[in-house]
Amino acid sequence: MKIHAQLKKVQSLTNQALIADKCYEAEHFFDRLRGLIGKSSLENGAGMLFPECNNIHTWFMTMRIDVVFIRKEVTAQGKTSWKISSVHPGVRPWRILPLFDRQADDTLELPDGTIERCTLRAGDELCIS
């Protein structure tokens, strides 16, 4: 992964599952452009978070990934919370059409099987730190 990508931890507050403890935040243009292209595998606990992104493609990828779309919610007190908008397990490489969720603010790409292992569902609340 890119050196200048910021490392994050993602955990479900709904069931306390640790989703990713080595999640890279793709903030810079080239990090976002490359994403996971060129990676042949992702270890458990790894992932990539795309802020302000509600669609992805898997062109040029060589592995299946799990995709979690996330929406940000700001409470009346000004506190930000993240909730899963939709989950897409086992998305194939070279998917012709983009995958998108118009309600989402961010996108999380994870190793294939993470959604099932962590029992992630739409509506689950996440902690991203």
N- to C-terminal distance: 19 Å
Biggest sheet details: 7 strands, mixed, barrel
The CATH H-level homologous superfamily: Protein of unknown function DUF192
Mean pLDDT: 91
> Helix coverage percent of residues?
under 10%
Integer tally of domains: 1
List the helices and strands and how they pair.
Blueprint lengths: L5 E7 L5 E8 L3 H6 L11 E5 L4 E2 L8 E10 L5 E12 L7 E2 L5 E6 L2 H4 L7 E4 L1
Task: Give a short synopsis of this structure.
The chain contains two helices and nine strands; from the N terminus they run ββαββββββαβ. It is mostly beta strands and 129 residues long.
Q: How does this structure look, described?
A:
- With 129 residues, the chain is mainly beta.
- It has a single domain (6-128), classed as Jelly Rolls (Sandwich).
- It has 2 helices and 9 strands; from the N terminus they run E-E-H-E-E-E-E-E-E-H-E.
- It has helices spanning 29-34, 114-117; strands at 6-12, 18-25, 46-50, 55-56, 65-74, 80-91, 99-100, 106-111, 125-128.
- It has a 7-stranded mixed β-barrel. A two-stranded antiparallel sheet has the order 4-7.
- The radius of gyration is 14 Å and the shape is globular.
- The mean pLDDT is 91.
